[in-house]
């Protein structure tokens, strides 16, 4: 790690310098866990086959259109948001194995560990989205609103996923137990499923539709469909679905404002 002088441990510069070291450390670990890479790349293929071909024929698209084009933005969102589970598990595992204690004994910026973990997971998400895009193009998904809108959609996906990963870091620092983290992982599924990812929310019971419409995941999916130009007419009067791009930016900013300081504070507290 970078040698620091007293007083500059929490400076922004050293946060990035030491954080980048952690990014490289976490990415290097992937060479020893090829199953994680394979699983990340296989996920889009499995989801496309299951929902695009097996269930797709039974699910009508609002306003008409190809269901696989309707589905693909939702799968992009699942890739972006599911990274929080991996983040939680990795941070908890490092705490359980004593890796965090060794990090704390080194002269490094307090936010370097959270920054490095979220940065590495962001890079992994980029490659997962590339794999998803290739799978989507192979089954008929297309971008209809041009390259700038496409880049904006991917930017939103990465931004929201990155902000959510800070929540994963905080929870991992709180849990500090690999077994407990594994048990918490399934809690992600209701959040991702209770949304407009796979089906329109219009057919849900009123109370469930309200929850789904205000789910940040739904806003991100709707924003991607809008930017990609994919089918999925928004029929809800809920503000997040009427303004999905702005809503996603607001949710991302809120997550960062809450969990960046919480993660840093938690890491500092457990160091004492």
What is the average per-residue confidence, as pLDDT, rounded to a whole number? 84
Helical content class:
over 70%
Helix-strand string: HHHHHHHHHHHH
Task: Please count the beta strands (DSSP E, at least 2 residues each).
Answer: 0
Shape assignment: globular
Provide the low-confidence segments as ranges: 1-10
Tell me the domain tally: 1
Radius of gyration: 19 Å
Q: Count the DSSP helices.
A: 12
Which percent band covers the strand fraction? under 5%
**Major sheet details:** none
* Secondary structural class: mainly alpha
Roughly how many Å apart are the termini? 20 Å
How does this model look, in words?
With 272 residues, the protein is mainly α. The chain has one domain (12-270). It has 12 helices and no strands. It starts with 11 loop residues before the first helix and ends with a helix. Mean pLDDT is 84; it is low at 1-10.
Overview in brief:
With 272 residues, the protein is mainly alpha-helical. It has helices at 12-29, 34-55, 67-96, 99-104, 112-138, 146-175, 178-184, 188-193, 206-214, 216-228, 239-242, 244-270.
Question: Which tags fit this structure?
Answer:
single chain; 272 residues; mainly alpha; 12 helices; globular
Layout of helices and strands, plus pairs?
Layout: H1 12-29, H2 34-55, H3 67-96, H4 99-104, H5 112-138, H6 146-175, H7 178-184, H8 188-193, H9 206-214, H10 216-228, H11 239-242, H12 244-270
């Amino acid at each position: 790690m970078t040698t620091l002088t007293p007083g500059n441990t929490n400076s922004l510069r050293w946060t990035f310098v030491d954080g980048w070291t952690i990014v490289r450390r976490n990415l290097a670990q992937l060479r020893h866990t090829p199953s994680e890479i394979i699983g990340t790349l296989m996920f889009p293929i499995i989801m496309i086959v299951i929902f695009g071909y097996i269930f797709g024929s039974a699910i009508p698209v609002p306003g008409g259109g190809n269901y696989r084009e309707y589905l693909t933005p939702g799968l992009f969102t699942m890739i972006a948001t599911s990274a929080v589970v991996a983040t939680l598990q990795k941070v908890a595992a490092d705490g359980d194995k004593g890796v965090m204690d060794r990090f704390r004994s080194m002269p490094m910026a307090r936010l370097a560990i959270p920054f490095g973990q979220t940065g590495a997971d962001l890079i992994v998400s980029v490659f997962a989205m590339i794999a998803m895009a290739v799978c989507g193009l192979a089954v008929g998904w297309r971008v209809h609103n041009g390259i700038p809108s496409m880049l904006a959609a991917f930017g939103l996906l990465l931004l929201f996923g990155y902000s959510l990963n800070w929540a994963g870091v905080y929870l991992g620092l709180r849990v500090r137990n690999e077994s407990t983290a594994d048990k918490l992982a399934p809690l992600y599924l209701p959040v991702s499923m209770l949304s407009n990812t796979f089906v329109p929310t219009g057919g849900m019971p009123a109370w469930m539709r309200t929850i789904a419409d205000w789910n940040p995941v739904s806003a991100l999916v709707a924003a991607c469909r809008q930017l990609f130009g994919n089918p999925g007419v928004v029929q809800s009067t809920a503000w997040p679905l009427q303004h999905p791009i702005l809503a996603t930016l607001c949710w991302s900013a809120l997550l960062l404002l809450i969990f960046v300081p919480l993660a840093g504070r938690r890491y500092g507290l457990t160091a004492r």
